[in-house]
Each structure stands twice: as structure tokens, then as C-alpha cells.
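Practice record 12: protein with glutamic acid.
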Amino acid sequence: MIRTRFAPSPTGSLHLGHAWSAIVAHDLARARGGEFLLRIEDIDPGRSRPDLVQEFRDDLAWLGLSSDGEPLVQSSRLATYAAAGERLKEMGLLFPCRCTRAEIAAAAVRQGPDGPIYPGTCRGRDVDPSGAAWRLDMVAASARAGPLTWHDERAGRQTATPEIFGDVVLLRKEAPASYHLAATIDDAASGVTLVTRGTDLFAATHVHRLLQALLGLPVPVWHHHLLILGAGGRKLSKTRDAPSLSARRRAGEDGLELAEALREGRLPAGLCFGESLERTA
Ligand code: GLU
């Protein structure tokens, strides 16, 4: 059975781009008699706002999107992410790193999908692990996994190239798991068979496919959908592009009509569907 999910981070109110993402996930599941799950990606303690969870649920109901079961809340699963991190450490694939963003930016020679590629400063060094971030040794991890492919419903068969990210952080100083680790583990734990999300996260899937291979997790199919773009082809932002779904809802707008308009490709003036030229979040 097909199972999809919508996985917002409660760091700000949802906007039209999130509505579109939720509609894609919901409609693909329902069209094939499957399930649509809601997951709350609240592992960033500094930025997550618990009060937004109910707002998100109300937004989905307003759009006419019913989800199956209780939402999975990532902050309740930290021990699971930590255990996966331990497994990767035991496999000798993680190393501690204490470099700051500024140090990495100054030393980096190449850009990756998420900004400057980590130049490998702490790899192979004796770094005090207390309070450090843990990075994946990408060369060792890729060698262990061997060649990998994955399938996107829109873009077709892909050869996994996680090395374009360099040694990604999997366990963070301030948060116990990175997006890559938590999302990969939870998609498997929830039995998600079709991972739907925007094309801005297309490249991240290379890393997720590698993590699935390393952790022995099932491999879903992906569907990276076009984004709703604002002025100048920029991604919509939670703070920049008013009004949020909750503001529209409170102003009395009809959510079912809005969802129908998006399905039919009718967007408010100034917005369009497209590929984002900005790098991933
Ligand atoms: N939490 C991510 C976001 O709000 C979505 C991650 C995903 O769908 O894999 O952009």
C-alpha cells in the first residue's frame, strides 16, 4: 500500500508552498487508495514552536486534507536517532568536528548543495568529542555502501551522488540529529513508500539513499514536486511572503476553494510554479 507524508517544521506558520506540498502528498496517496501521514519535524530546540502544531493541523483540515493516525513528533524520538548515530560510530563512519561555520567557509574550496563543502579539517584527527558535531566520513561511507541508485517519479532513475555534500553533519551540537538522519529514519519507521517533497530537497535524497544503505532501511520511491515561487523566482519564505495559511483561514477564506485552485494551477498574481534556483535550506 502506498503511504506518503507531509513533514513541516514548526518554525513558522505555513504558507502556500506548504499547502501545495501537503496537497501533492495527500492526493498521490488518496488517488492510489493509500495513507497520508503528518510528521512534525521539531528537532531544532532553538527554533521549534510547540504552539504551531495545532495550527498546522487546523490548516490541513481547512484545506480538506485529512491525515491518517496520530502525527509522528520527532522530538519524542531522540533516543532512536541517537541509537542510529551510535551504530554509525561503531561502523567507524562518523568523526567528531568542532569547526565553526566561519572556519569552514574560510577553508572550503568548493560549494555543495548546502553551501561551502566541509574541507575535511577534523577527519582523522584526535578531536575531543564532548559537545562536538559528528560528521559522516563520506568517502568511507560511500565505499562501504557501494554504487546506489534511487527513483524519482518525475525525474526517473538517479545515480546516488552523496559526495556532492562532502562530510555532512549527522549529529549536531545544538540538536541531537540532523534533518538527514531523522527524516530517513522516520520515513522508514512510518513505512512511507513514496517520499514527496519539493525539488529544493532533491539533492538531499542522495544522502538519504546512502543512509538507508548504511542502516539497512527499506528504500522508498521519491516524488520531488515543483515549488511555488514568488517574486524573482525565489522560494516562498515563512516570514517574507504573507499571508500565511492561518491568516487566510482566520480572514474567512475558503480553504477548499484554495486547494482546488492550486490543484488546477491557478496561483495568486505574482506567484508561479517552478524549480528553485536557491540552494536547499
Ligand atoms: N521539514 C522539511 C521542511 O519543512 C521537509 C522535509 C521533507 O519533506 O523531507 O522543509
